[in-house]
């Protein structure tokens, strides 16, 4: 077997013959290749496998090789990308290198030259990985993320969450998840259970705010036959049903004072008593609770018991809102597009670069849940196989764009003797400041394409 066996390279090309030719050439040297025919498929596969080396054609049906370089370097900077360009396209090749590409090859591709470049790129990528490879292999995210396949993210904020999950999951400790609605607290609770020694035992979840006090008591602790009107038989509650496993208590900040007392007793004694019952029942249940409330403040106001609060917060994990992990939006969008396309029997090949930029700039007050619903809407109603600005629901288009007609005109100072490059930089800086950093809107105001603006920003190191 070749010394390169099991080394995975992602090959991206929308021309099947070229895709197969490059893949075979690398496989002969022992590389294991993953193939993608468009930008979205490449995003999805890279998010899953974090290939050390990627070979991509410059022109893709739903984006460009330069877009892919930027995406890969944003998600996993140590991976190296080789761009295949049209013969003689020196300007594009230079642009690829500025975007962070390892190198480029011109068409028609000299396969021997390409194999040599891949070997060099592999050596560089793997050499730079060693320091952090253990943590990253554990918490790498995307469509599947090591021990946490339900979770998607590569932002600094999410890597910190994954690091905590890696530490706390194998323990018996109670966990308190804090975060806004829609951030994915229930998915994190499920991930903790799945990565624990209790994974073969039940995982149950209950939304504490969905029940009245009486019904919640019965749901959690169960009841004996005849204990209240309609109690026609003995029924086990969530604590008994989850015995040996994990119980997720969502919206824990909404429970009444009386329910707080009962829950505290369960945590202290590891026993429950059914409604209408006379006997204590021993249980072994790990508690994961979640809330979007500030429990510190609720304790100070007297709305939440301090002793219960400290019982629950043995480990606290703060789940970041989507606005604090914007770099994860392309990963999430790619995952949702793929999922909803399959679920609704739609053929969606990708999403335009400009549309992705718009989605990144939407406030997403409802966090990941709101983004998910938006992408589902776009996939269902799109008339094309590539999602564009026209597919974004109107309410989001309205809040994404800044109305330039309401912006009071401003002027920039141009001194005699300034170079055209200095004037251009001044115009871009002032326009970006005026539209609060919205690149899509700035490009429109300046009368240039979004990719041109992005290239200028890199050129001027803005």
From TrEMBL:
GO terms for molecular function: ATP binding; sequence-specific DNA binding. One of its GO terms (biological process) is regulation of DNA-templated transcription. Residues 151-380 form the Sigma-54 factor interaction domain. SMART domains: AAA, REC. Keywords: ATP-binding, DNA-binding, Nucleotide-binding, Phosphoprotein, Transcription, Transcription regulation. The modification 4-aspartylphosphate is found at residue 57. Residues 8-122 form the Response regulatory domain. Pfam families: AAA_lid_14, HTH_8, Response_reg, Sigma54_activat. Gene3D superfamilies: 1.10.8.60, 3.40.50.2300, Homeodomain-like, P-loop containing nucleotide triphosphate hydrolases. It comes from the Bacteria. The keyword NADP does not apply. PANTHER family: TRANSCRIPTIONAL REGULATORY PROTEIN. This is DNA-binding NtrC family response regulator. It comes from Desulfurispira natronophila.
